[in-house]
Design brief:
single chain; 189 residues; alpha+beta; Arc Repressor Mutant, subunit A; three-stranded mixed β-sheet; 8 helices; 46% helix
Amino acid sequence: MPSSHLNALLELASENDGFVTTRLAADAGITRRTLAGMVDRGRLERVSRGVYRLVHSHPDPLSPYREAILWAQSHRGPCVALSHETALAVLGLTDANPSKIQLTVPPHARLRRRAPARVAIHRAILDSNDVIQHDGLPVTSVPRTIRDLARSGSLRFAGDAITQGRREGYITEAESRRLTNELKKLHGA
């Protein structure tokens, strides 16, 4: 592998907690064959279809979330965001530890491969107000997350998220009241 390709791969991986996708590599002029050779030589580890990790990188607590996002976006995939209980966990608004990483993708997104067992896919239209960046990860906004949780029947998590979201400054007092009223209407329905 030419040193320019290796440098490009290292730069890509450093921007993504040690992960690189076949799509990002191809955009940098690195072929799948080159990636496969690096796996054979023990420099890369294939963690899911289309996603690799530098063997000597040090994963951090957000690495599993970044890996899930990269998996969904690999091969020119859709715009996605961490959502539901996962969004609350990433934002530090719950002590819940979801058993699956929950992603929301557009309704008609074509994910050309089966989701890893640890990933749950939700389908919905997300507009620009519905997604925020948190530590470089796309996450549904707190109001959107609360509404998603309420729609999925997780009213307790939604109620707790209103309290914590207000305490941490993610939502205003007016948003808190509006979301509380929405939950009351939904719960009474």
